[in-house]
Amino acid sequence: MEKLLSIMQTLREKCPWDQAQTPMSLTRYAIEEAYEVEDAVRSGDAQHVKEELGDLLLQVVFQAQMYSEQDAFDFNDVVESISEKLIRRHPHVFQSEKFDQLNETDVAELWEKIKADEKKDQPQSRLDEVKHGPAVTQAEQIQKNVAKIGFDFESVDDAYQKLEEELSEFREAVLNNNSDEIQDEFGDCLFSLINVGRKLNVSSEMALLSTIHKFKSRFGYIEDQAILQNKNLEQMSLEEMDQLWDQAKLYLKQQAELKNKHNPLQASYENPPT
């Protein structure tokens, strides 16, 4: 670890690009690297996962180095802070003599109680608990938060009815050709669709990531077949690409079934229980 910290310090002293960075300018890279980790795990390639975890760790080290230059904190302070938090929020592990055997639900409730106690003197809205992150995740977390106090649809059908209502308003906005209204109604549709997913215990973030991964895999198949057929992808007709798309669906489904048989751990990740 000391080697990495030393390299980062040297880069800040001698590399023009690294010198030009600020904590704010780096935040988008941290987000990108977190998604790269997710994609690597999904691929099942351990070497790729190792590389991407290193890239994500670099973002932590880089940020810590910049704050160290401001005499705010350094990397060791970051490690000490998270270590203390983990010990504090796991009393059933580090003070096990004070707790009876807890199940997973008990542990989750204890975690939330300790977290609430830590923040009890900080005035805040309920929604302040929702962490900043991808909009899809924020929407889902906001819905889960307010549902705890009863601000929720009673059933999936009720949530779906609201989605249909928003879709109708979106169609009307499109007909009116009002760009501001279209964006507003489109956002309402997304929010309502996420709510339907939540009521069905479907993670919208994971569902969308899965679809993106599926699309990229199928399109990659089209590109590979175009090369095998000595065709230029840009010159292929939509009909030709649609035929290859249908072939890709069948081929990749068969490959996934074989992979799941031989790698149940990866299968459980790609097909999580709901």
Give a summary of the structure in a few sentences.
The protein is mainly α and 274 residues long. It has 13 helices and no strands. The chain starts with a helix and ends with a helix.
**Strand portion, in percent?**
under 5%
CATH topology of the largest domain: Helix Hairpins
Low confidence ranges = 267-274
> Largest beta sheet, briefly?
none
The overall strand count is 0
Radius of gyration: 24 Å
Termini gap: 39 Å
The top-level CATH class of the largest domain is Mainly Alpha
CATH architecture tag of the largest domain: Orthogonal Bundle
The tally of domains stands at 4
The rough form would be described as: globular
Query: What is the string of helix and strand elements?
Result: HHHHHHHHHHHHH
Helix content: over 70%
Oligomer: single chain
Category by helix and strand content: mainly alpha
The helix count comes to 13
Characterize the structure shown.
The protein is mainly alpha-helical and 274 residues long. The chain has 4 domains: 87 residues, Orthogonal Bundle (Helix Hairpins); 26 residues; 68 residues, Helix Hairpins (Orthogonal Bundle); 65 residues, no CATH class. It has 13 helices and no strands. The radius of gyration is 24 Å and the shape is globular. The C terminus is likely disordered.
Secondary structure: elements and pairs:
Elements: H1 2-14, H2 16-20, H3 23-43, H4 46-69, H5 75-88, H6 91-94, H7 104-118, H8 135-147, H9 156-176, H10 179-199, H11 204-228, H12 238-262, H13 264-270
What keywords describe this structure?
274 residues; Helix Hairpins; 13 helices; 4 domains; disordered C terminus; mainly alpha
